[in-house]
């Protein structure tokens, strides 16, 4: 028996030495969740591989990731790889299959794709195979910081972020560069294999002005959230749950320069550079990407819900289209006094009591210019609209972003955040994260995060729309398109601007 095997092996050795070997890169191939990757594999010396069998597989030879023989790709395939694989060129210079290049292209990567892929090539008289190792990573959401004043005068800051792979490390620092000890951290893993992180630290106000929570993975890519703790009221000043609104500024640094300075700063702090980075230019590019990348449009739209206007609870001076999607100030409305017509508002017919929900509105109808006056947000069911801005607070069940013509953009949080948004948004995305108490706004056209209001929701909340008065364009609620499948689209990040916790 053993002599047969030896004879067989010898036979192979002899034959393969006069035919081909399979060659793959020595290092693992690294790619991000959701993106596409090419796993290089080729035969040497080069020969036409069109007549060979090419089998890419993981655990089961008979249930391959991709099988090519008799001159074409076969249907036999592991179900989870269906429609995600193809044979590809390992570089622009490659001559392809004719030249012995049997590289595999894999799309829509998930955490489950991590690990070795066997590249097996077989001809008439010989075969060979090698493993290509794929490492997956996912850069999570920009950390959101939330302060809670403690009785002893310190502030308990919590930092949350999700969508990481592998498990990220958390670093707390103060603005003067000191590393702050975390009070505690916990990680959890979702069904998709990705990690969520929650960390907290208690800081005294005299200790720091800006506190930063930064999450990073082994490539050196990181996401950072920062919080100014000086404006936070001591706990006795915050009597009701809604009074405890804190102005905080979470800077997801937009500028590469800022990111770069942070990076240099970290480097000084830790005394060493993260592995793999010795070219400053490359580093800067990577870090810029890390700092500005946020949820993609596709991730947002995964939470898309269909919204329509509730006709029963409509201000009589509003005009709404038949399909309950388009609204504007009615012809009879006479807006005389100064200031935004807050009472002129419409409510969505959909109620939310948990989870994440996303919708988009158009604020322009060509050829008219983008609207100057609008108000978009959510409202607690049962709250009634008012003429007076002072009555529309989070404690009264209102959370919104308002565009008030020449007066700019502002939130209704107790410490109002005034923004200048340039250009004026044409299409606005709204993400309600009920459980995490966040309402985020996005400029969809520019794929940019505008700001996040943090609060706590209770009961049912419904979408809120105010079309203002006097604009030519109406507000149009869009039926959100399904997430776009193309790799080019999904790899394009949203830019983050800034966020505020209230
Ligand atoms: C693969 O694509 C075909 C045709 O486009 C489609 O009918 C099928 O449902 C897809 N399969 C999977 C698993 O996505
Ligand atoms: C700080 O807040 C976290 C929750 O975010 C909590 O688990 C922790 O016990 C708090 N720490 C202190 C000292 O209150």
Report on the structure:
The N terminus and C terminus are likely disordered. The chain folds into 4 domains: 119 residues, Immunoglobulin-like, CATH 2.60.40.10; 90 residues, Sandwich (Immunoglobulin-like); 40 residues, no CATH class; 212 residues, Jelly Rolls. By secondary structure, the protein is mostly beta strands. The chain is globular and about 90 Å long. An 8-stranded mixed beta sheet has the order 21-22-33-24-29-30-31-34, with no helix packed on it. It has a 6-stranded mixed beta sheet with strand order 2-11-10-5-6-7, with no helix packed on it. The chain has a 6-stranded antiparallel beta sheet with strand order 23-32-25-26-27-28, with no helix packed on it. It binds 2-acetamido-2-deoxy-beta-D-glucopyranose (2 copies). The site of one 2-acetamido-2-deoxy-beta-D-glucopyranose (NAG) has 2 residues, from loops.
The CATH first-level class of the largest domain comes to Mainly Beta
Strand order of the largest sheet: 21-22-33-24-29-30-31-34
Strand runs, count: 35
Number of helices: 5
Domain B30.2/SPRY: 287-484
Pfam family, one: V-set
GO biological process, one term: regulation of leukocyte cell-cell adhesion
Transmembrane segments: 244-263
